[in-house]
Amino acid sequence: MLIGEQTPLSQARDITVTFPGPSRGVMGRREKLTALNRVTMHVNRGDSLAIVGESGSGKSTLVRALLGLQRVDSGEVTYDGRRVTGRGRERWLRSRTGIVFQDPYSSFSPRLTIGESVAEPLEALEIDCDRSGRVTEVLSLLGLPADAASRYPSAFSGGQRQRIAIARGLIHRPDLLIGDEPVSALDVLVRQSILRQLATLRRELGLTMINVTHDLSIVPDIADHVLVLQAGKVVETGTVEAIFGNPQDPYTQSLIRAIPRLEER
Ligand SMILES: Nc1ncnc2c1ncn2[C@@H]1O[C@H](COP(=O)(O)OP(=O)(O)O)[C@@H](O)[C@H]1O
Ligand SMILES: [Mg+2]
């Protein structure tokens, strides 16, 4: 590495991930499905990366590999320069990363109060602190009412639940927040307000962010860098300005052309 070059916070070097495929080939052997094909990417501290591509292109598999939730067949994943093994979720990595999934309805146990659900990472990581104080703090950071902690998920709308999911992703004060389609299940107005909130949180907390999305229209609101995946391969990567202003790959060009224009929405 060159002097003065920073260590990326999250990095994948030439990673390949395969799964047993659905069909049986010659000799009755299962053919492999290559979900990620020699992917190399990184995100620097403080940056916000959008991972885009069609359904099935490998976006979720990539973020799972970055989080150590998915073993790689070959290549290497590192976090802050340290090797991620992918053999079970390592605690040191979990303590430094948070994740928000797409579905605000299946994210919470209906039998736990919001306070209990949001505090779960503190419990799992055995973080010694004033837990209810932390819960109150992080819920208010997300603009939720003061009494939210004592209520149950059924009392909240999809948008509010997604704010609660973000609160849970942040409660242990990670330096990287990963969203896997974090606003895809929400309607347009709620989506806009949550995207604005994520941008504010990023600024205020100095977060590094990776967000997966199949919807390119939200990318400028959420990211400064873009990685385009197609069938498990990186086809293009660059700044938002470069990718939107001058996309080089035909696949990227087609994704951008497919964005509904404002006047058509
Ligand atoms: N656990 C798994 N077992 C088998 N195949 C999988 C598994 N996870 C993902 N895949 C396959 O890997 C490919 C990439 O999936 P995924 O990363 O979920 O794509 P995306 O998030 O872009 O929609 C798809 O063909 C999917 O069917
Ligand atoms: Mg996915």
Task: List the secondary-structure elements in sequence, H or E.
Answer: EEEHEEHEHHHEHEHEEHH
The CATH superfamily of one domain is P-loop containing nucleotide triphosphate hydrolases
Could you tell me the CATH topology label of one domain.
Rossmann fold
Please bin the fraction of helical residues. Answer: 25-40%
CATH class of one domain: Alpha Beta
Termini distance? 46 Å
Q: Supply the helix-strand structural class.
A: alpha/beta
This entry's quaternary arrangement is: single chain
Descriptive notes:
The protein is α/β, with parallel strands linked by helices and 265 residues long. The chain has a domain at 10-108 and 175-259: P-loop containing nucleotide triphosphate hydrolases (Rossmann fold). Helices cover 32% and strands 27% of the residues. It has 9 helices and 10 strands. A 6-stranded mixed sheet has the order 6-7-8-3-9-10, sandwiched between helices. It has a 4-stranded antiparallel sheet with strand order 2-1-4-5, with helices on one face. A hairpin with a 2-residue loop joins strand 9 and strand 10 (233-239). Helix 3 (114-124) runs parallel beside helix 5 and helix 4 packs across helix 5 (158-170). The longest helix has 18 residues, at 188-205. It starts with 9 loop residues before the first strand and ends in an 8-residue tail after the last helix. The structure holds adenosine-5'-diphosphate (ADP) and magnesium ion.
